Amino acid sequence: MTIASDLIRGNTDTIILASLMKKDSYGYEINKDISAKTAGEYEFKEATLYTAFKRLEEGGFITSYWGEDNVTARRRYYSITERGKEEYIKLLNDWNKSKNMIEKLIDTGVIVNGE
Amino acid sequence: MTIASDLIRGNTDTIILASLMKKDSYGYEINKDISAKTAGEYEFKEATLYTAFKRLEEGGFITSYWGEDNVTARRRYYSITERGKEEYIKLLNDWNKSKNMIEKLIDTGVIVNGE
DNA sequence: ACAAGATACCTCGCCTGTCAAGGTATTTTT
DNA sequence: AAAAATACCTTGACAGGCGAGGTATCTTGT
Q: pLDDT tens digits for A37-95?
């Protein structure tokens, strides 16, 4: 939350696809997984998450189906497609490239407490 | 250009401030410096650049003055303020934090050709 | 028994940053 | 004389994030 979301933006889709690379999942769970992985430091806003799902499904990168026989509230599961896997790889490459570029551009030799 | 600008977004201000940490400069030159540093891979769109200057000046992070006695077209020089230097350090920290977070979230063990 | 919180989904409308497209003015190169 | 480079600026459209609101079910605390 403290961290500017404009820094995460552009990685939203990558993060979701990365999550779905491991297993089919649903919105609420994906968010909880992210929260766990970052020790509670990050979580998508719901509106952001569901907007992203819609965008990814329209792009053919994921498909969805309703989870059955679940005891709790109904869940819409998402599954990554072949196209989605390719996109994930592409996005990873984009990230690596731009990450290196950004580091080149923002470095002035100042020492910052890395974390 | 090839690289999604949503990945750069959020670092725009940091990049400009980093440039001004070294010396006073003006829009056109800052952009050319960025282009040189990235071997022509990146450059801000003019509209983006001038919007950022305005935002940074309104925030008190930079100040501007007209360059005199220059032979070519008139130049508006920008100078980073004390507040701007503090902001730069803060933004660097934000970047480091979110970079680590993103890497944690998008990694699935897939090997990508690093560049 | 009932309220509160957790689980789980969704939409509308605002805000912010990017950028295509347009414009101005001067100097240098062809 | 024309074209390209230097240098600035604004407008309006567009996309993504997200606050605020809504729905429905199940579990937990008192």
A: 999 999 999 999 999 999 999 999 999 999 876 667 789 999 999 999 999 999 999 99
Find the chain B residues whose C-beta atoms sit closer than 8 A to any C-beta of A: 3-11, 14-15, 18-19, 21-22, 34, 37-38, 41-42, 88-89, 91-102, 104-108, 110, 112-115
Helix (H) or strand (E) holding A65: strand A62-66
- The CATH number of residue B39's host domain is 1.10.10.10
- Which two three-digit tokens encode residue B33? 């410096």
Confidence check: pLDDT of B115 > 50? no
Domain assignment of residue B14, given as a range: 5-106
How many independent structural domains does chain B possess?
1
The whole-angstrom separation of Cα B28 and Cα A12 is 32
